[in-house]
Amino acid sequence: MDLNSKVPSGPIEKKWEKHRFDMKLVNPSNKRKYKIIVVGTGLAGGAAAASLGQLGYEVEAFCYQDSARRAHSIAAQGGINAAKNYQNDGDSVFRLFYDTVKGGDFRSREANVYRLAEVSNGIIDQCVALGVPFAREYSGYLANRSFGGAQVSRTFYARGQTGQQLLLGAYAALSREVALGSVKMFPRHEMLELVVIDGHAKGIVVRDMVTGTISSHVADTVILATGGYSNVFYLSTNAKGCNTTAIWRAHRKGALFANPCYTQIHPTCIPVAGEHQSKLTLMSESLRNDGRVWVPKKAGDQRKPWEIPEDDRDYYLERIYPSYGNLAPRDVSSRAAKRMCDEGRGVGPGGRGVYLDLFDAMDRLGRDVIAARYGNLFEMYERITGEDPWKWPMRIYPAVHYTMGGLWVDYNLMSNLDGLHVLGEANFSDHGANRLGASALMQGLADGYFVIPYTIADYLTKVKPGSRPSVDHPAFKEAEREVEARTKKLLSIGGTKTVDEFHKELGQVMWEYVGMGRNEAGLKTALQKIPQIRERFWKEVRVPGSGADLNQELEKAGRVADFLEMGELLAYDALMRDESCGAHFREEHQTPDGEALRNDEKYAYVAAWEYKGEGKSPELHKEPLEFENVHLAQRSYK
Amino acid sequence: MKLTLKIWRQESPEDKGRLVSYEMDGVAEDTSFLELLDILNQRLIKKGEHPVTFDHDCREGICGSCGFMISGIAHGPQKLTTTCQLFMRQFKDGDTIVAEPFRSRAFPVIKDLVVDRSALDKIVQAGGFISARTGSGPDGNAIPISKEKADRSMDAAACIGCGACVAACPNGSAMLFTAAKISHLGLLPQGQPERKQRALRMVAKMQELGFGACSNHGECEAVCPKGISIDFIARLNRDYMVASALETVEPVKKV
Ligand SMILES: Cc1cc2nc3c(=O)[nH]c(=O)nc-3n(C[C@H](O)[C@H](O)[C@H](O)COP(=O)(O)OP(=O)(O)OC[C@H]3O[C@@H](n4cnc5c(N)ncnc54)[C@H](O)[C@@H]3O)c2cc1C
Ligand code: FES
């Protein structure tokens, strides 16, 4: 297979401009003759659907929630990056590009990342125009904060609700197009199949989650913007409904899945409280600015934190990483916390937690300052744990948070399947092996507002207006039959175990063997266990109810069935990538002080996997990565 | 803890529905309300019964998916808290808790605790936006906005669209929801050109969809998990009065 990234020629800072000129335009009067399907209305899909509707295309947009405004982008807290350099602190498009390539540990495609940095400024302008109430300084100008992996202050934010405000902006723009009739919105609809005709993506099959009706939707091109797959680990910071189904179904239809093993683990989450825990909650990383992370020196020390004297405490981040201390990068601090707990020195129920202690800062700065900085985080923590952070140091533990991998796309954000475009967290394109904070929101909106409106036009000029098939085409009928058969199968197994039980079991295997630290033996164990769980799932699961109404167990069952396949690919990719890079940490490959050790000679490529059928090994296609503008170097934050 | 749950079970919009009691034993205090329903559902599935259907997604109080009446109060007894962020330590051993769907003319029940809140989307579609075509915005710093205004706008923009305000209102009014959107946009310079039409269109749509009028009960503010202030309703009323004196409602037009 020819993996052509279609990166335009010329110097990096001219590529996008040149490409925009070289691409063909759709005649305005022809636009309404083209129909575009957008699956997902998060930042990526919402921005795309709104922008394409404005341009005059006929758009159909789908999401599984009851409203487009509830996509998981809503939960992002920290902020969004842009190279505005409003702080006059030395930022530039090139610096944002450089930081992102380096932060991704040299496993992303330079040209895409450069374009991302280039369009970042327009995003802020667009969001302000849409009424996003970004934080402001007393001057009335936009405020910025700093985030990990950067030495400049380039993050724009709206309190702790940046994702919410950006999404409400895109949702408002989308709502306007819905009012005008240019976008037709289908909430509570789940995409369950992609339809490919003669190698071209021409539509989808969806299930109306309220009535259970399965139907086909035809289009000239399909966009998937369905978010990340962190929930393959069962417990993650993602919303409960986040899934891999849309991209996994597309993968089974021929779309290559790139770098599935690149999954990011966030160091500061509230630890698991018990068996009943259904999801994990992120606590802003900003706490690490003033907090000191520690565990008892002695394993199994049961004393209350305040009974443990200084001498018996191990401020391990300060000890191991003296120059970065408590601000060591996400992946490094996550792994260190796990090591402490593995040594039996973890705190809290189950021993899976470390203290994040702000008492020194309270003494130094006063309680008022701490309350102003972190008051709402303290409240959130207390609400969830019942412990008062003014009395007890908080307990934190790493949790799965973001997936850098996704469907392979070229520079135009089109997958190897002609006509299938993939945006946002669902694609693999911009973050390499590790994403920097505040860059996912930027990428989602870049893809949706400023990239796809151009590249899709160029694609559509090659499609004859009015040439799309009808819903009666045999391929649609066949896909509907497949979905119906699958639904029926799930409902008819009638076993003894619940969907959640299987999901938890999968999650435990993923976390144990394919989580923060990975090694050959563990990955091989996972590769043995996952198919076994999958086999038992199809024999022993019980999905109550019928397919003819709102049936949340049926929805979950379909998603978990797909996770049970995709988890295996994730583990396989992790095994085949016999190096450490960014968030992918193979214990066999580390520097003497525990940093990820890349092997550029052998692994400076994108691993794009082709589905070969059930029970068959996937086939690897490599897209070599070349670094012409950022020099390959050992990532160091010491 | 031991608790008795009385949950509204309704198979379909046509079904009459009824409260069904479930005894819950050994409930840990750090279980969230939705996790309690998860536990119950696991049990029901194993017994061959139908699990309780309820909307939820983020489970961290921001997406606005979750929400039902908990012993008569939208989102339950804890202030400034969504149902997903309500933990069992707010209850006492032996308590009986009643869970019913949000009830309002504009929110028909779909199943069990799930209601159809699409009317809220329709209010936004009527005018809850600024018509700025992608790519048309000037530099983000071209128009300074005082910190005070921006902060106040953000106070209103924090609405998560859960519908608790509607459910709590004796008139089933969506005034707090609509007022939050109108204030969020109306406090910003970018929101000025469409300010009058926005008020006219959104209020007209609200009435058309069967939401009641506001008679200042204040129940909405009391249950709002984001603490949206009822003062915004006064702002909406002012905007609406000025607008109706000067203009009549016009349909949304292409830019
Ligand atoms: C707690 C948390 C905090 C974060 N904070 C930040 C931050 O501060 N800064 C930052 O840059 N990034 C942050 N991120 C990451 C960022 O929020 C996400 O990567 C980004 O919002 C993803 O946007 P998206 O549009 O790709 O997908 P999503 O917003 O997840 O949207 C997915 C859409 O697809 C739909 N969908 C999915 N599957 C189907 C299906 N089968 N059928 C139909 N529809 C479907 C959903 O309904 C939804 O509309 C955070 C993430 C988390 C979890
Ligand atoms: S589930 Fe999102 S607010 Fe409760």
How would you portray this structure in words?
The complex is a heterodimer of chains A (638) and B (255). Helices cover 37% and strands 14% of the residues of chain A. Chain A is of the alpha+beta class. Among the domains of chain A are: 268-398, Succinate dehydrogenase/fumarate reductase flavoprotein, catalytic domain (Flavocytochrome C3, Chain A, domain 1, Alpha-Beta Complex); 474-601, Fumarate reductase/succinate dehydrogenase flavoprotein-like, C-terminal domain (Methane Monooxygenase Hydroxylase, Chain G, domain 1, Up-down Bundle), CATH 1.20.58.100. Chain A has a 5-stranded parallel sheet with strand order 5-2-1-9-17. Chain A has a 5-stranded antiparallel sheet with strand order 11-15-14-12-13. A 4-stranded antiparallel sheet of chain A has the order 16-10-18-19. With 255 residues, chain B is an alpha+beta fold. Chain B folds into 2 domains: 3-111, Ubiquitin-like (UB roll); 117-246, Alpha-helical ferredoxin (Fumarate Reductase Iron-sulfur Protein, Chain B, domain 2, Orthogonal Bundle). Chain B contains 8 helices and 7 strands; from the N terminus they run ββαβββββααααααα. In chain B, the strands form 2 sheets. In chain B, strands 2-1-5-3-4 form a 5-stranded mixed sheet. In chain B, β1 and β2 form a beta hairpin. In chain B, α5 (175-186) packs antiparallel against α6, α5 packs across α8 and α6 packs across α8. Chain B starts with a strand and ends in a 9-residue tail after the last helix. The mean pLDDT of chain B is 97. The interface between A and B is large, with 81 and 83 residues. FE2/S2 (inorganic) cluster is lined by residues 56-59, 61-66, 82, 84 of chain B.
